[in-house]
Every structure is written in structure tokens, then in C-alpha cells.
Amino acid sequence: MALRNGGLETARTQEPAQEFRALVEKADRKFSRVRDLPDFGPGPNPARYLNKVFKAYMKVWKFQRENRAKLVGSGLQRWEIGEIASRIGQLYFGQYMRSSEARFLLESYVFYEAIFNRGYFQGGKEFGGVSVRFKELRFYARFLLVALILNRRDVVDLLVDRFKVLVDDSRATFRETNFKEWKQVVQEIVRFVNVDKPLPNARPLRYCAMFDTHPDSLPYVARFHAKKVLKLKDVVLTSYHRNEVKFAEVTLDTYRMLQCLEWEPSGSFYQKHQTEPIENGVHKDFSGTSGLIDINLAADLTDPTLPPNPRKAVLYRPTVTQFISVIATMCEELPPDSIILIYVSSSLGAASSVSAESSGGSRRFSKSKVLLSAAHDQTLSPGDNKKGYLSNYYDNSLCLSPRGIGGSNNLYPGDLLPFTRRPLFLVIDSDNSHAFKAERGEPSALLLSPSRPSFKNPPSVDAIENGSQFTLFLTTPLLAFCQLVGLSAPDRDTDIYGEAENIIANAFAKWEVMLCSSTKIDLVWAQVLPDPFLRRIILRFIFCRAVLYLLHPLNTRDSYMPDCLPHLPGFLSPDAEAVESYIHRLADHLKVSDCFYNT
Predict the structure, then answer these.
(1) What are the beta bridge partners of residue 564?
(2) What's a BP term from Gene Ontology annotated to this protein (predicted)?
(3) Dihedral, CA atoms, 242, 248, 251, 252, nearest 10 degrees?
(4) Pick from 202, 150, 149, 100: nearest CA to 476
């Protein structure tokens, strides 16, 4: 009888375990189908598949919570709970990258933080060997990326230290396994963190109403709403430079722009949160196999009053075909009264003649280009002086990727012409940015970087290794100013940097009123000024242009100056009193006035 009861008990224990394994396998199969789906561009819509995967994993999660004791009794390990939670965190992060909704990023952080705090993967190597160790390494890399994008620098520093120790331990414990790639990942994140050092008490990169909204200009901004205005809806971000700073598939430049085009989450998220349940004033013990994670915690950390973030496609080293495909999809789906921002940070691409020699396809393209140009020239009268009308669009290019052959990874100004039928805001950060002045079609807003960066004391390393200077001005103006004149964080007291931020904020407030109250501003700019993200970028461009203008003597300014099309009003030119006075005030405050000229 005892044997029979024991057998029944074993069967009862095995039934939940078998059902649990079946649920996990089903969820994993669904996960493998969506993992490699493109986030943007033509093809299957990931949203339809993602909903099914979320449901499958939530079912697994709920089942293991309700049957935890039986599952533990049948041999469920802590690292298996960690693996499920990591998959859910990965799904949430993927959904954030597709939608730019902050709640998904926060949900991802909640799961990863719980895995880390409860040490789900600790000791996993004793039960699963090197395969579990690889799962743990992947978890650390993903959690680092989420914490980095959320700007949880204290957590990032802690994770980097733990990650380095884990990789070293892996190499010592599993000597027959090659961990060279993980050593490179460690080097990437260490380099990223060392380069991306904010100033003390730096203001957030994301748009924060407390710092970035200027009340005096609000009545003038509101009047634009009586006419047609454009709202930033979609964003395409891509960056490629040789030896650029990056982590995973996020480069330093796209990382900065990504945050610059989002709303700052509720300040409550940056305060201490009691995320661990408490019973009778004592923290619960999670040393056992626990699967308790508050999956609704992120809802309490977001601000429901904030508008949605613009949707962003962050493209890592795309081919030009992929790049254009994403833009085409966004243009097709763009609602009326909306605008797309396209940001490209890159170096000069190969000349079209070189590309023509590299592949048959490029030779055919080059020949077609010449024929098109000739055909257009024949339709012009001899006095039109427009010989080679199309050649300007294909003489120079930007390199988007090391992949491909010939010109397949070169972006020409002419490649963007078809998309000017829809409202575009272009930011080109390149030593060849001025080639994009040839971009015509329907009027678009263009911000073009200087041909070369500026420094009081040129750095000992390639300037691009610290990220693009123009992008830095558009995302963190004070940090860009300090790097320009050779100031680092320890050089000045925290209060001095705080007052410097106030000087810049006062300048932006005044310039914003001047812009928004003007009746002479070009319609292209007037239509985008009501959008807070685009308005802030325009103000920072004005600041950048003025700083660089006053840094260089008149005879060498041209190659160091950014440009914009259409031109902004003359009352905000670099030598205008309302602009120049603030630059000198900032320089005097930071005691670097000797770096700048007076006009």
C-alpha cells in the first residue's frame, strides 16, 4: 500500500513537471520564430507573432508560480526560472526597440533586475555546465544594454564589474571553451562607459519638461497650431565610422540621439523603489527557487500624462537597400501632418567612379546615371547653365556599412530624393555632409555638420573615437562645449556646471521666443517648431553654430561651420547680439573666454 501511495505521489509530482516542460517548449518554439524577424521594413508584421509569444511565456510564468513547490520537488533549477524571466525581458526590450514605448523598456528592466538581485544564474554552472554559463553571459550583456539606455549609470557600473569577473571566471573554469568573443564584449562596454562620461549632475538626455520647456515661448508656440504644423512621428537612426565606440548594435552616436528623441520617464523611477516584497517588516528570502516578479511594476513607474515617443528604427550597419526599405515603409505609413527625422552619422563613401569599377551592377548604375543626366540636359535651353543636373546627386556619398561590394553600402544624396514627397527632417553628421545640399525635391529641413571637428587642444586619438562632436552638440550641448575647450568634469565645481546649464537654458528660452514670434521664418521651419523634440534640436544647432563661429578666425571658418537649409532668420546668426552675447557669457563663466573671438 505504501508503495502504491508513493507511486501516486510521484505521478502527481511528475504531472506538473511534464506540463511545465511542454509549455516551455511551446513558448520557445514561438520565440524562435519571432527572434529574427526584422523590426521595420517589408515583410511579416512582428506584432501579430509577438502577442502569441508573450501569451505563451506569461502562461509559463503563471504556471510555475502556481506550482512552484511541485516543480522544485521534481528538479526545477533556479537558472531555469532565470532563463524564462530573461526571455520575457528580451521580448519586452525587443518591443521597446520596435515601438519606442517607455513602458516596455521599464518592464524589461524590472525582469532583468529581479534576475540579477535574486541570483537566479548563480551556481548554474554546477548543474548545467558551460551552456548555463553562456546563458548567464547573454543575460548580463542584455541587462547592460537596457540599463545603459535607461541611464542607470550606477547599475551599469555594478554590472560591468560583475561581468568582467564572470568572463574571467569562465575562462578559468571552462578552459577548453573559447571565450574570446565575450572578452571583446567586455572591452566594448568598458570603452563605451569610459568615453560616455556625463558632467556632474548632468541634465537628462531625454526631453524633460522641467528643463527643456520655456514658459515664455508657449503662447507663441501655441499660435502655430492655428495653421498646418508637423509632429515628429518616426525616426531613422544609423551610424557607421571605423573604430567607433559601440556596445552590441548601438553606437555611441545613435545611443545619444535615441535618448534625445524621447520623453524623460517619471522621476519616480530614479528614486529608491521597494521592489522586493516585505512581510512583517522583513525582506522575503529569495534564496529558494522563486518566480515572483511583479510584472505590472513598470506601470507604476511611467507617467501617463506624457505623449508617446516617436517611433525609432535604430539600424546597425545597414546596406543602402535596407536603409531605403525602412524609410520607404515609414513614408508609406506616415499619417497626415507628421514628419520623419532621418539621422546619418558616417564618413565619406567611395567615389562613384570607384564603385563603378568594383562591380557590374555599379557600372550599370553609373551608365544609367549618365544617360539620365544627359536626357535631362537635352530638355534645358542652352542658357539654363544646368549642365550635369543629376550628377550632383551621385558624385559624393556616405558609407553606411563595411558590408557589401562596390557602392552597395554607399548612400548618395539622390537616394533620398523620392522621399522628399513626404515631410523630412534630415540630420547629416559627416565630413561629407555638405554634399547633401544637392538634395532638392520638395522642401525639407536639413541640418549639416561641419566638415571637421574643432578642438582647442586636438585629442591624441582619432576624434570619432569619442563620438561625433556635432551629434554631441545636438544632444548634450554643455558637454560638447566643455570637450571643445578642453574642460573635464574635475576641472570645475558642480555648482559651476549647474550655472552653466542655466546660462544655456536662458539662451534657448530667448532664442525660442524670437523664433516662434517671427513672421519671417521659412515655412519649413515654422511647420516643425511646435514639435518639442525638433524645436530643441534647432536651438542646439544655433548654439553649436555660434560656438564654432566664434572659436575660429574669419579666414578659416568655412570648413568648421555647420549649415542648415533653408536658412534660419538672420537675427539668430552667430554674430547677432542675441546669440553672441550668451556664448561669451558662458565662456566667461567657465573661464575660457580666451578661446573665442569677438565680432
Answers:
(1) 447
(2) DNA-templated transcription
(3) -120
(4) 202
> Secondary structure of 178-221 in the HEC alphabet?
CCHHHHHHHHHHHHHHHHCCCCCCCCCCCECHHHHCCHHHHHHH
pLDDT per position as a tens digit, 522-574: 999 999 999 999 999 999 999 999 999 999 888 888 889 999 999 999 999 99
The model carries a pTM of 0.86
The single-letter DSSP state of residue 159 is H
Beta carbons of 146 and 93 less than 8 angstroms apart: yes
**Amino acid letter, 311:** R
Is the pLDDT assigned to residue 83 strictly greater than 70? yes
**Whole-Å CA distances, 364 to 356, 359, 378, 391, 407:** 8, 9, 21, 15, 12
DSSP secondary structure, 94-138, as one string: HHHHHH--HHHHHHHHHHHHHHHHHTTTTTHHHHHTHHHHHHHHH
E strands, 534-585, in order: 563-565
Q: How far apart are CA 54 and CA 392, in angstroms?
A: 49
Say how many Å lie between the first and final Cα of the chain, rounded. Answer: 102
**CA-CA-CA-CA dihedral for 373, 376, 378, 380, to nearest 10:** -130
The beta strand positions in 248-305, using DSSP E, are 250-251, 278-279, 282-283
Phi, psi of 564 (to 5 degrees): -145, 150
Total Cβ atoms within 10 A of residue 553: 7
Residue listed under C-alpha cell 555647420: 562
- Residue 453: phi and psi, rounded to 5, are -75, 165
